[in-house]
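Z., the sequence and structure:
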Amino acid sequence: MTSLGLALLVIGAVVAVAEAHYPTQGIAGGAGVLVMAIGAVLAITGLGAAVLVALLAGGALAAVGASGVVLSVRKGGAVRHRRVRTGAEGIIGHVGTVRTWADASGSVTVDGALWKARRSPGVEEDEVPVLHAGDPVVVEHLNGLTLSVRPAEEWELL
């Protein structure tokens, strides 16, 4: 009975740790905690302790493990709802500076990098002033390696 309990403890721990590497929204972690609790009860009763002591130890292990799994799943879910900060989606909304501009395209510096840029689609030429070197612009879209930009408004520069 003791060896079966120890085997279940190890298997449960491996399954619970696998939850951290292959997120299953708590399913694998919950199953691992349950198997560990059963293994603890079997191992403790196999060593000759009273059933009540084994059940209390198994319940305590299950409570601690379940709270760890719940905390992990909640924190993992919260990360999914955060705004993207890197990559192509992360540059949208950043303020840059025009380096050169001719007609509807040119080059801009955003976060220390030089990019090809064009005026954002849907903006009429007569609505937006002509851009000059040094003017602040806001990134609205990224298509390949070309940014779509518009002139920055006063409140965006603060």
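The chain has two domains: 2-80, 87-157. Helices lie at 2-21, 27-46, 51-80, 87-90.

Let me know what you think.
H.
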